[in-house]
Amino acid sequence: MTAAIRLDHRVRFVWLLAALVVAFAFLLVKITDLQVINPERYREVGIEQRTFVQAIAADRGTIYDRNGVELAMSRPARSVFVDPTMIDDPRGSAAQLADALGMDPGEIEKRMTTEGRFAYVARKVPAELADRVEALGLPGVGLVEEPERFHPAGDMARSILGTTDVDNVGISGLEALYGDQLTGTPGKVVFERSPAGRTIALGEHHQVPAVKGRDLVLTLDRSLQYETERVLAEQISANKARSAIAIVSRPETGEILAMANMVADPETGDVVPGTNNAALTTVYEPGSVMKMVTVSAAIEAGLVSPDTMVQVPPTLKVGDATFQDAEPHGTVTWSVADVLAHSSNIGTIKIAQQLGKDRLHRALLAYGFGQPTSLGFPNEQSGRVPDPSDPDQWWATSIGTVPIGQGVSVTPLQMLLAYNTIANRGVYVPPSLVRSTIDADGNEHPLPVEEGHRVLSQPVADMMNVMLRRVVADGTGKLAQVHGYTPAGKTGTSRKPQPGGGYRDSNGVTQYQSTFVGFVPAERPALSIIVIIDEPRAGGYTGGVVAAPAWSKIASFALRELSIAPPATDAPAGGTPVGERSGLTPEGKVRGPTADLPVASPAGREVAVGAPR
């Protein structure tokens, strides 16, 4: 019995000794792995457990106008967050926080009970709400500073500038188009914290600063943008219109100085800047402002001159459609200049019939229609120019509709650029909206300038310039006159296509879009402007009555604001003194090609009206 007990003790001792040896061996292997084989890995795990990284949001680049005035910028804002591990009473804390923020307490409680140590409750709250939250002093509830987008001028030009989401990512307008440049590089703060959440004073601590995004310098002029929006709002209210668009540019450079899109709230009637940049993202049938293209192409082709006489009957049948002029008349004989000044549909169609559909089509493409501009603006439209070789696009009536601006769609900017071509003496100049970027070191980088192309020979463009003056002097555009200056331009009144087809709305009423487009001073064009009033319902509906007055007001302000003086000489009329009423005879008639305005040879014209280079 004693021997058996002794043997049992020995077995137990052996097992205990074996267990100790195994434990010691395991401990030895672990120590060897920890101190010799993989010391770095365990050190990194330890540091990882103690080290915390706090991201530093980067400021988004500022957007300036041409004079260095801020249009969009970043400013500090505070967001409310919670650390669920530090909240003992989620329901009670959620109720207090919901009362301060005006939120649903149930939604806040969900965020207070999620896994992890960080959850947003509200992003970029107003300062007074952030102060209320801070005053509560709730455990586990904190505020973090992050930048938000701010527009010092409010909603002005908002459809151009665009918007950003809550994470400062551009989602529309220039904010989206230049998002890569405006977005900065985030920084970070690295520090060590104890298990209790306190920062270790002598622990690792370093900071990588955030780098602000590049700034944008636009071609816009804030004062002119404001006045353009104000004038459009006034005109919308006066004419009970649906909306209005205006663009102001420098023809010589293509710089856009103002681009306004104003809309009337259908319920309140309040007129506010639109969120959609309709000057680029919508198309319309321009109406009679397109007659300039038809007439200029015919003169360029050597078919007519400003003083060529055209017999204009009261009606004209083309295909299965019968056309007439806005003002009824018997059979008259007008010069080409008269046809343009009186905006004769029939006279323009007869000129277009001489030109032919193929040459008309080439001219439309050369002026930039049917293709987006070089701006690359988000959702910019191309418009539609029917192809005469496609019977599904070009009908028997198209030679009647297209020359007078129906059956063809354009953006407002495309239409303005066509008139810029006349102002530039026959050269199409692409538009620009952003002049340069500025990097984090303050260095300015001008954006490359797109090359233009010649559409018309210079003499023909000069003829068109002088003829367009007469539209304002004694034609349909008299209300576009500007005191002390000579404007040149064209009126347009077009029926508005409806979603279901045709031109009558659901109430059987034909709606109109009224346009005036032109440049000033005509002798040396420094500004070009287009104004479009959509669905005017009071005080008239024609471009000469509705759009021309707004054009005159915008032009008058812009000429003063930009200190543009009346020129002394008239370049398109051969440099003659302006005081001699250059380009017009004493009776107000356009001087013809046999007088002061030379013409190019027909061969030269044919080459000029081609597809853009």
Q: Brief description of this entry?
A:
34% of the residues lie in helices and 21% in strands. It has 613 residues and is α+β, with helices and mostly antiparallel strands.
What secondary-structure arrangement, pairings included, does this model have?
Layout: H1 2-37, H2 39-50, E1 51-56, E2 63-64, E3 70-82, H3 90-101, H4 105-112, E4 119-125, H5 127-136, E5 141-150, H6 158-161, H7 173-177, H8 179-182, E6 187-192, E7 205-208, E8 215-218, H9 222-239, E9 243-250, E10 255-264, E11 271-273, H10 278-281, H11 291-300, E12 309-312, E13 315-318, E14 321-324, E15 332-335, H12 336-341, H13 345-355, H14 357-366, H15 398-401, H16 412-423, E16 427-428, E17 434-438, E18 444-446, E19 453-454, H17 458-474, E20 488-495, E21 512-520, E22 527-534, H18 543-561, E23 569-570, E24 576-577, H19 602-608
Parallel strand pairs: 2-8
Antiparallel strand pairs: 1-6, 2-3, 3-4, 3-5, 6-7, 8-17, 9-10, 9-22, 10-11, 12-15, 13-14, 16-19, 17-18, 20-21, 21-22, 23-24
Helix pairs in contact: 1-2, 3-4, 3-5, 9-18, 11-13, 11-14, 11-17
